[in-house]
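Thread title: Can someone regenerate the structure for this chain?

I was given the following input by a collaborator and told the matching structure tokens would be attached. They weren't. Posting the sequence so someone can regenerate them.
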Amino acid sequence: MTSARVSQRIGSIAESATLAVDAKAKALKAAGRPVIGFGAGEPDFATPSYIVDAAVDAARQPKYHRYSPAAGLPELREAIAKKTLRDSGYEAAASQVLVTNGGKQAVYNSFATLLDPGDEVIVPTPYWTTYPEAIRLAGGVPVEVFAGPEQGYLVTVDQLEAALTPRTKILLFVSPSNPTGAVYAPEQVKEIGQWAASKGLWVITDEIYEHLTYDGVPFTSIATAAPELGDRVVILNGVAKTYAMTGWRVGWMIGPADVIKAATNLQSHATSNVANVSQIAALAAVSGPLDVVEEMKVAFDRRRKAMVSALNAIDGVDCPTPHGAFYAYADVRGLLGRELGGVRPATSAELAALILDKVEVAIVPGEAFGPSGYVRLSYALGDEDLAEGVGRLAEFLGTAK
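Best answer:
Regenerated them for you:
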């Protein structure tokens, strides 16, 4: 008997749907097709010049041409701890910080460090596509708890309680949310955190969109809102979204010392240190002012309003107004089964494929984030492209409501 060429563990991983859509859109663009891509969660702005200048200077210094500690440059770990106190109100020592190769490695490290085979993780849904794959890679079991548009894509404590079993070890908490842009109110964050603490659960909280909230809606860190969690909380973050640094690949995890030490041991064998030039760029980012972030937010807010308005004008589409991140998560169940371009799509995946084929607009179907019947569109792209893209959608799908 011949064995499979690829291991079952790796072969069972689903490709990142968001990256797949983005790659297809870019390939079509390279082939000369006028594709508008709403797929990737990537700001269209350049990384601020003061951050780039710090990286250029670092690249000329021989000390940064060498290996550095697997957990990160000491000065960056210290700066991240200070930044976390400033922005999340959470106090941690530099020794509780692990600098990772982007936010995704922080996600993987956290689940790999905390989960044993069969342990369950409650995953509020819609979820970012990488979470369940990272959980499964660690031997864990993702347990989806779905909150639809009728409740603003926000799960309740009653829903979480219903999903609890003796195998539950971790609650994943994400606010602002990717893919929905939903933001939990401070009292909701506190209630959920207190519930998790009362059940003895760990909480892994992804705060990477902390600075991207709108309409006066505040960001609230569950680590601060529910001090009852004690040392059973891990904070994930990074510079990618706030500072338009997706390609620099710098994220981090913050947690209790024993967890960070174990995760550092894992990273020492997997990738070792993050590229030093990128770490110095991240140091400039987290130590610097937030003025540039506010400037980007003005553009994001303008695009958010334009996109939501245009989507809600389409018959069969319902798009709650997102209060964070840079995504609109539209309910398209009203379009399914309708004849569009000579086809009757039965799922949001079929609808997204049809839209890309007929009007060359790339969107990500809900199947990447949970149940079918929804689509995610990023508004982190130029105003002209956004207007052109939603215009094509409106023309193809119809705007009479």
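The radius of gyration is 21 Å.
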